[in-house]
Amino acid sequence: MTFTIATTLEDALAAMAAGARPVAGGSDLVVAARHGKAALPASIVAIDRLGDLARVTGTDDGVRIGALATHATLMLHPLIVDSYPGLADACALVGSPATRNVGTLGGNVMNSSPAMDTGAPLLALGARVELRTVDSTRVVPLAELWTGPGRNVAATDELCTAILVPAPTAAGGTRSSSAYVRLEYRRAMEIAVVGAGASITLAADGTVESLAIALTAVAPTIISVTGLDAFVGKPLDAAALTAVGEIASEQSSPISDLRAGDSYRRHCVGVMARRAAEAAARRAAGEIIGIPVNRAFGIGAAR
Amino acid sequence: MTAATAPRFVRADGPDKVTGSGRYTADLTLTGMLAAKFRYAEIAHARIIRLDVSAARAMPGVFAVLTADDVPDVRFGPFVQDRTLFARDVVRYEGEVVAAVAAVNATVAQQAVDAIVVEYEPLPPITDLEAALAGDSLLVHEGWAAYGAGDPVVRDRNDASFSSITKGDVDAGFAEADHVVSSRYVADGCHAAPIEPRAVLAQWEGNKVTIWTSTQVPFDARAGVCETLEMPASRVRIIVPHLGGGFGGKCGFHYEAHIAALAKAAKRPVRLVFSRREEFFAPDRRREGMIIDVQTGVRSDGTITARKAWIAIDNGAYTTDAGFFSQLAAMHVSGPYKIPNVHIDSHLVYTNLQPSGSVRAPTAPQACWALESHTDEVAKAVGMDPVAFRKLNAVDTGDIGPSGQTYGEIGVQRCIDEATALVDYGQPLPDDEAIGVAIGWWPSFSVPSGAYLKIDGDGSAQIITGAQECGTGAVMTLRQLAADELGMNAEDFELVYQDTSVAPYDMGATGSQTLFNNGRAVVAAAGQVAEQLRSLAAEFLEAAPADIVLADGHAHVAGSPTSTVSIAELAGIAAGGELLIGHGSGAPPAAPALVGSSCVGDLGMAAFVAPQFSCHAVRVRLDRDTGVVRVMEVGTAHDSGTIINEMGALGQVEGGVMMGIGQALTEGAQYDAEGHQRNTGLLEYKLQTCADSPVIRTTFVQIVTPNAGPRGAKGLAEAPNVATAAAISNAIAKLVGQPVRQLPMTAERVWKAMQS
Ligand SMILES: Cc1cc2nc3c(=O)[nH]c(=O)nc-3n(C[C@H](O)[C@H](O)[C@H](O)COP(=O)(O)OP(=O)(O)OC[C@H]3O[C@@H](n4cnc5c(N)ncnc54)[C@H](O)[C@@H]3O)c2cc1C
To answer: Of B367, B398, B365, B1, nearest to B163 (Cα)?
Structure first.
């Protein structure tokens, strides 16, 4: 087994070209190996010292989040909290303070678990990942990244350097926001039984201009809910929210396992989708709903 | 002393544990040490057709491979001798040890384990309690009529211990009732789940073996080694480094003999360190699953006329200390109520699941959950408020309990008042919130125990005790008892403990008994030293020994403030003559008499010595869309007699409540049809976390109790774990409209109950 510590991006990319797997926080890779889920790769390159990859930068068309930005950073980052609160909701739910301090966004996305928390808000927000090799750079929409549990389209020598999230449009007085909600049986060290992320833009008159919802842990990958165009041009009232939940339930194909039965999961993903859409819409309308939404209303809210 | 004025002090082992300088068993290494690994059955029920360890033995780096053929052919077990160190002929649960390996490191040991060839003829796994009790069921132990067993144990087919309580005439009682309420409740098994997975390290010198082990009961562990390896106690020394939690999971004798035998065969020290999965599925210590059918007759005015119950308890494949569970569960399903007519039948049922054993307040959280949920159903049937119903029917000072015991001064009624007041019971609540209330009880265990106490020439003091600290702080509190006896500070005492070759016997961190019994021993030992100090001081200060008062680290002459000498100075004098050494044990309190009841299979649990009472009142919130329940606020009141260390006592209550919330909502062992446990990790077996903890307020109803522990103290380690799940259940039932009849009351089960 070889283990190298990259101090420059070039080192890291060269190591990967030579067959090394990257490790960032190690909270998926090492823990999976310890649990016998997947053996440690024969060659590993640590990328956690590449400080440039931990930056969060506002750009003309959105935000560029370095792959090494941790959940702890993102859940409190003003740019994320203000403009992409759905991502902050998800980061704030990851594991425990210790997990959030070591776990990175790049690791979460590239680990490609269908139960990952940042996937649904990022997908709903239309995010893309930047993948680099020694001699190439490409940008892949998240909608095309994941191919199955723990699988994605990145080649073995491609390093995720950033996650790019487009800015919500503010043209013509529209207002946008996002939210992420998950079902949890306890308030820390939890894994999503089901979850939903929503991103919404409201027209000046308060009707829906666009709505995107993605679901956690109900299919082999994070999935987008389709057919939400039907809500465009209408207010997202109680009846519409109920319909959102029903559509989400219908489109999910959950399994039964130790955490929940399939029918319960199917029911709950509808509840989560409804709540995520509601929270995103209320935020877009100007209401301050604290991060994470899970502690603000619904499950386990403080009063 | 009231709780408010009781001293609060920080535990002696705290800094070591918090800073990481403390040593746990898995931290120890010895020169030439080998790693141990076990080959487990991995099948719930099968006959061994072939067991071939030759390939494993031949592997380089392997020093010893042991099977049943390599150790004395001894059957052991505290109630029924149904157990052997290694499986013989038949395996009866998936975690049964078939063979053990010692090798240069854990990787090689595992490879050797994998190289062991075992062929099985699978037998049908017996996992259903009712089917196991049916007359035509296959037997878990075919030939067990020939096993040794204690006299009172009633054994019948798969019934490992039958027990009944009968008082009055239940049929007549039901005939007097205006309403009869019948309920069935089912509790899944669950786990102690200590954070430290167990570890054992053994080293031989000549014909003596020293075993460092993470046990709650060092003397029990020693007895187990002596019995199974056929050695006298004088050649076996058990040392317990810091223990990373136990909660009962590390009570009993487990793997010490396996590792000692490996070390002997390998002629090297051998260390076993469990993985988290092993900690979950292998030890013969799991909280027992249970089925409880209970029926209560009540008059329209709310008085209970009769109770009948049938209880089946999952014993698992072997009877560890679970022998007394049938009687204890019967007591908890009777409950601390005035019931004139009682008949309870309780069965401890062999299955092909992991053996059950004492986990914190064995049988009580489940039985109390069932009984108290049922009690709310009974109150509802007569249209009474459940708290008023309990006040009417619960026992009080001078009353006779369901097993025929007459109580002295007890605080159960006051506990109900205090706990409900702490959460403002009766206040208007939002429509997704409710408060549930439950009462519980628990015996104190009266057993022999011993300690020494010495003060060295420089004035430093030591308590040398057989008591075992499992995290409760009970051993830490012994220092306070000694300090009060000798007029010194708790911090002045160093503890020497957890070493069977150094200290006298103690039963260990089990049965809430440490302070109750070892406290008595320490007070007695300190009393002897106090006597010595008084006579030395009398001589030194030229006064009568009876006039000497020990306080503030000095000996004073009563009434003459200037006439004083420090204890350290007296110790210096003693060092040149008769040394300051005390020893103590004291007579254990006697068991109370029972009148008017009869018990089949009586294992001493129908009479509660110094009974402890509690009431928990819990406010929960229900997410009606998902069935997720959150505990918002808990009020507890405990009658555990005198509280000696309030900080430690509150820690016990808060920990017990958190464990109770886990049992109520998220903790349950899940099995497949073949008897394999499926959630053997901390991700899938969900303990409560700090983030889940509600506000917990506690009032101690302090009654200086005669025939109890030091200063009228009762036990307190297990009592706080009794009533929480029950109170949560009653709150959920109010919100759902009916109880959730299976434990844990997971979100999915709550949601399903809402659909029906
Ligand atoms: C106790 C605990 C609780 C957890 N709770 C949650 C939770 O609530 N929600 C949740 O979503 N997750 C949770 N996780 C999983 C994990 O913490 C997160 O997925 C985390 O974001 C992973 O980041 P990492 O940097 O630690 O990844 P690593 O373990 O370092 O890497 C994960 C995978 O991604 C690859 N990788 C990492 N970085 C890159 C990169 N830049 N480019 C290409 N490939 C890369 C690695 O090769 C590896 O295959 C939990 C984990 C633990 C141990």
So the answer is: B367
